[in-house]
Write a structure and sequence with these properties.
The chain has about 300 residues and is of the alpha/beta class. The protein has helices at about 20-25, 25-40, 45-50, 55-80, 90-100, 105-115, 170-180, 200-215, 235-250, 255-260, 275-280, 290-299, and strands at about 5, 85-90, 125-130, 145-155, 160-170, 185, 225, 230-235, 250, 265-270, 285-290. This is ACP S-malonyltransferase.
């Protein structure tokens, strides 16, 4: 069986304490958590739950989700064999490159730390909207103020489109009140930057410099991304280029799905509660790895 493991975006709704049974039962999962905990400099139990005074809650949540996703992937590969391709969108792209051996855990954490830096006085934000099929979702594409930073494409059997919107918080708040769909603006404590938009040019420059000083390795297997024009990466240079480009370029999830369909696989494991809710058709047998998977497999 040839398979892909696909990692989803950052998800503010997941309670990572649910992964404690995985750690108790799986040595490979514990090894992933120990690796991240050692790099961050905290005990493993703090990586599962609780505040860490010297780490910003947003950065800590990113690291927790990466540890959870990658530990689930290791369990999957222990049970079903190694993946022949990895994929990821947004935070999931970093997870995919780590799983493929292109980025070390140290580089991943350093990358996230650099991305997280407060580099502007602008009040930036992100939001999510389900736009019914009858509504023009391009209303949310307003360059310099607000952009569709990730298009997840048609979802729920074609009932509508899920998009992520990035921009200035006052603009997103106005769009929530006046726009054609219900826009949920993420609170500052969970997201304080306009990810994957031109407003992130300062972090793009920093991350480009970081990857010049800490070069990536060639991935062991192909990695599919949602970065337009860089949907499949097979070299260190392509991997670095996609990571840097994703800072300021809108992501195209249908493009990722189309690239995945060009790969000879017969199963995809989707490590994401968020993507499961969207009911996206990947064109092959799809297994979802989320909170329900944890409960079924680890009690």
């Amino acid at each position: 069986m040839t398979k892909c493991i696909l990692f989803g975006p950052a998800d503010a709704s997941v309670d990572f304490r649910g992964y404690e049974p995985v750690l108790r039962s799986s040595a490979v999962a514990r090894s992933v958590y120990r690796e991240f905990a050692d790099v961050v400099g905290i005990p493993v139990d703090q990586l599962v739950d609780g505040e860490v005074p010297h780490i910003h809650p947003v950065l800590l949540r990113w690291v927790r989700q990466l540890a959870a996703m990658l530990s689930a992937a290791r369990v999957l590969e222990q049970r079903h064999g190694a993946a022949s391709v990895y994929g990821g969108v947004s935070l999931g792209e970093l997870a995919a490159l780590r799983a493929a051996g292109s980025a070390s855990t140290e580089t991943v954490v350093r990358f996230l730390s650099e991305r997280h830096l407060q580099d502007t006085d602008r009040d930036e934000a992100i939001g999510f909207a389900f736009v019914p099929a009858s509504v023009d979702w391009r209303y949310y594409e307003q360059p310099t103020h607000m952009t569709v930073s990730c298009d997840f494409g048609p979802v729920l059997g074609g009932a509508g489109r899920m998009i992520m919107v990035s921009g200035l918080r006052p603009v997103l708040e106005a769009a929530r009140a006046d726009g054609p769909a219900e826009l949920q603006v993420v609170e500052r404590s969970l997201a304080h930057q306009a990810y994957h938009s031109p407003l992130r040019e300062p972090s793009r420059r920093r991350l480009e410099a970081l990857l010049r000083s800490r070069p990536l390795a060639h991935p062991r297997v192909p990695v599919v991304t949602a970065v337009p024009g860089m949907y499949t990466v097979t070299s260190a240079e392509e991997a670095a280029g996609a990571l840097v480009a994703s800072e300021t370029r809108s992501l195209d999830f249908p493009g990722l799905v189309a690239a995945l369909r060009q790969v000879p696989i017969d199963r995809v494991f989707v490590v994401s509660s968020f993507l499961r809710q969207l009911e996206i058709d990947f064109g092959v047998t799809t297994k979802h790895v989320d909170d329900d998977w944890v409960k079924r497999n680890f009690g």
